[in-house]
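Workshop exercise sheet. Pairs work together: one partner reads the sequence aloud, the other fills in the structure field after running the prediction. Swap roles for the next sheet.
Pair: D.N. / O.F.
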Amino acid sequence: MADVLLSSPDRNRSDSGFTLIELLIVVAIIGILAAIAVISMARARQSGNEASAMGSMRAITGAQAAYASSCGGGGYAQSNADLAKAPAGSPPFIPPDLEKADLAATAKTGYIVDVNDNEDPDNRDVQVAADTCNASATASRAMYHVGADPVSRGVTGTRSFGSDRRGTIFYSSTAAIPNPIPGGLDFLQ
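Structure field:
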């Protein structure tokens, strides 16, 4: 009878496979790697949004230079909508995606990009709206301010950008760029 117990099928079976602890360790490692990947993807998305915002700032400063030289009598447009109006026989100064980027609902790649009147006390009208080549809604003025701010700071972007007639793009990691832009801010080169 002893021989029968030694040769039973349960005794000859090999224990192969994973224990519960081994499976839990593998799941934990996969979870950690997934969390790292999600954080990296969020940072990459923020960087992409910031690069797009800088590109939008460059597009607007270039559009303002073109507007001033060809349409505004040396003065600048005071809104996204005025830059988006096409002069007769020419394309608009900015692309359609920037025309409405001044509202959170239609922000461009996580950034609100807003062209507005510069609050510098020396700012003045240059040409009345009716005399601009694209029938702007407001007069062209000697100065302008443009700001690009994340829709949700820390989620869609971490830095705010700003520029004016100088064409320099300034940035801040803590708040929107003030209007008018004061000295001492960091700028992109």
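Discussion prompt: The longest helix spans residues 20-70. What would you look at next?
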